[in-house]
Amino acid sequence: MFSSQIKPLFERLKYQSTATALINEQGTYSFAELGVRTAAIAQVLAPWAGRNVLVHGHKQLDAVAAMLACISQGCCFSFTDQSNPVPRIEKIAKLTRAELILTATPQKLEGLDRWPQWVTSTLENGDPGSLPLEPELTQPALYILPTSGSTGEPKGVVVSYENFAAFSTWYSPMIRDGIAHGCHVSHACFSFDMGLLDLFPVLCEGRALLMLDHRHNMLPRQNIRLMSRYPQSPVTSWFSTPSFVDLMLKDPLFSGEQFPDLKRFFMAGERASLGLVTQLQARFPGLEVMHGYGPTETTGMTHTFELGQPPEHISGLLSLGTACGLTGIRIVDADGQSLPPGEMGEVRLYGPQVALGYLPEDDPRNSAFSHDEFGRYYATGDRGFVDEEQSLFIHGRDDGQLKLNGNRIELAEIESSVCRYVGVTQCCAVPIKEEGKVIDLQVFIQLRDDSATHRAALRQFLAEQLPAYMIPKSMFFCQTFPVTLHGKIDRQQLVAQHKEPLTVS
């Protein structure tokens, strides 16, 4: 199924379509231009057909071409962003059993001489006529996505062609139907599942992908300039984390007036607050806000739901709707028994999007991939519940429980209580540890309108929601939240930036 899904894209590459395929800081590139670069890299890859390849870069034309070249040769690829230090890249190359490194950066990576390396910019353009329309897939894995491991060492999520095809079957219509033929904005790096989820379906639909450079994560005006640079390719759809949306909303130009063609807006990757969604809807009247959820281990996204105005929620938790495509879901207790609607438990996801597992094979978290009488599943570690219509609501992580002053505290409960206050646009709780013991809980909050009155109102609101021992003593009120490379809240950076909290008593 994947081969037939990717065929329209390879037709555009092979037959040199002049339509715009990619937009980045360097310019715009047609499918024809992408095709000659893909063909050049594919020719180099031919001796490694069916092998594992490491692709290195950021949002360059050749970074995309290298991944497409891997597909054309049946190679399983892993992507490392150029922001990674060489020692981590080396770990990932070993973990993913890469036999070759392709880098879209100007120079080869030093210190990785045990692997053959090609600097793609040194390759002459190739003949796109040599590209296959339906690549021959000789092994099951499409890509291996490196992610952080509990030991501090990276682990790899192995996603198959079948996994991705199952996802793309239901997602592709969402980025096509009812949307003008403008460009789709992608913020995530290709080393993050959201980056890959955006890439292939958008290009297969013949749409242009606008790739935001992460140098401008904290500079919304720079992103707006790129998004406005090519009026012949207006922004019509978007996908990012809520944290990045919040940063963009700091600039008043990020609005429906500036981007009147923006119709569909996907948010996923972390908790979205009721206040943030309300603010986004006010800035873009009539915008379709799609609230998404799904772990990397289930090919990135299993749920996406169009939020109404006002957004559907239960006690501040935004609805994620029912599972998409062929994904199944159960909410289970500690014994793996199904829980009725409304009861909180662990989320288990079933179906063809469940990844093949982790590398290394002996990673203890591989136990999260298992079978029961309902089929093969991934135990997400997320706590949530479904309502009577089977719409999903995520409360937080199953591993977010800690003890402070002898009291057991759920980080997710504190965060969801803070986010329930309509004036809050962002929030995260961070435990502070000393010699392995939690000595403090710091909560970082962003108010839509920050003032002493609103701060006091929030504290009164929390007093009505939480027992006294769970109300944070250390509160930081922030104008902006720093984000990681993948656009999620950078908790370590928040702690480093705010040494002295505003302590409320």
UniProtKB/TrEMBL annotation:
Q: Residue limits of the AMP-dependent synthetase/ligase domain?
A: 12-359
Alphabetical list of InterPro entries matching this protein:
AMP-bd_C, AMP-bd_C_sf, AMP-binding_CS, AMP-dep_synth/lig_dom, ANL_N_sf
Gene Ontology process terms (BP): amino acid activation for nonribosomal peptide biosynthetic process; secondary metabolite biosynthetic process
Coiled-coil intervals in this record?
none
Q: Where is the AMP-binding enzyme C-terminal domain?
A: 413-488
GO terms for cellular component: cytoplasm
Question: Please, which domain of life does this record's source organism belong to?
Answer: Bacteria
GO molecular function terms attached to this record: phosphopantetheine binding
What PANTHER family would the database entry show? FATTY ACID SYNTHASE, NONRIBOSOMAL PEPTIDE SYNTHETASE
Protein's recorded name = AMP-dependent synthetase
